[in-house]
Amino acid sequence: MEQAKTDVLGYQTENKGTDLQKSQLQSVLETYFKSVPDLTDMSDTEILNTELETLAKYGTHNITVKEIFDGSFSNENEDSLKKSVAELREGDEVIYTDGNGNTIPCIVLYDSTGSYGIQIISKDTVGTDIELGNGTGNTSESKDSSHFSTAKEIYNTVVAKLNREAAKYINTELATNARCVGSNPSETPITEESDTGTYTNTYSYFSSPINYNNQFKLGNGTSNADRTQMKKENINCYTIGKEYWLAWRYPIANGNFTSFSVRAVGAEGNINYVYMCYIMKNGDTCSVSNANGFRPIFILDSTTHYTDKNGTKKLIK
């Protein structure tokens, strides 16, 4: 296997010495031999005494590794293994470390070939469930006016609130920003709501005896971009067996009531309309509280790198 020996010599020249890194030898062996074991945790002696059979296109030969390389191994460091995140593609799984040192398994939702930059989403919910609504922690209806006011405020500021939650998980060495799934992937994540875009309808009960027009924010339908992406076959991370919030306000009006809800993904992938508050035809107001899981999306810094060891991709600076 002279060509394999030549490849080894090339790496030694690159390393400016006679040592090899295990990953370099692994690459050479996988080019020419069948069923090469993972060398990472093997001792030097075990590696050198490993018997291998050539791939069919190179004839039928059985050798031990030391016939190709009989030297020692240098320590590998992350700098020698790191690759640019620009090389990641949709559906790749990566390990993200947040600002507190906690690891969060993620999936590449948007890669460098698109217009949104490189964005990754947590594979599972993170932290504790997030309560939205009237603040009582109770899913039963409340007709208390102060509870209604609380729920209205949560509805009006929910996108910013959920994006602020995502910001708690930012590691500024790896990501430039964070947002809640369902927010607009093309915008800088908002953390404060603007006063523009208020809701009105023409039902008489909505304007009399109390006029609720222009007191609530319009709905926002930007979560379709994330949902469409998450359902792609090569990504497939939409349904996770748990409920989780989308940063998506949604008003509904008919002759009997007007409701203001926040959408969430159900455990089986259905869309839930989770009520915050509503105004009834008879003038009554009601509010509720609900808790669901939370999935952040991280917008990676274009200068971030990753290592790929044994198929595990870990983000590093």
Task: Describe the model.
With 317 residues, the protein is α+β, with helices and mostly antiparallel strands. The protein is built from six helices and 16 strands. The protein folds into two domains: 75 residues, no CATH class; 232 residues, no CATH class. The strands form four sheets. The protein has an eight-stranded mixed sheet. A four-stranded antiparallel sheet has the order 9-10-11-12, covered by helices on one side. The mean pLDDT is 89.
Write the layout of secondary structure elements.
Blueprint: H1 2-15, H2 22-32, H3 44-48, E1 51-53, E2 62-64, H4 78-81, E3 83-84, E4 93-97, E5 103-110, E6 119-122, E7 130-133, H5 145-167, E8 175-180, H6 223-230, E9 244-253, E10 257-265, E11 271-280, E12 285-287, E13 289-292, E14 296-300, E15 305-309, E16 312-316
Parallel strand pairs: 4-16
Antiparallel strand pairs: 1-2, 3-15, 4-5, 5-6, 6-14, 7-13, 8-14, 9-10, 10-11, 11-12, 15-16
Helix pairs in contact: 1-2
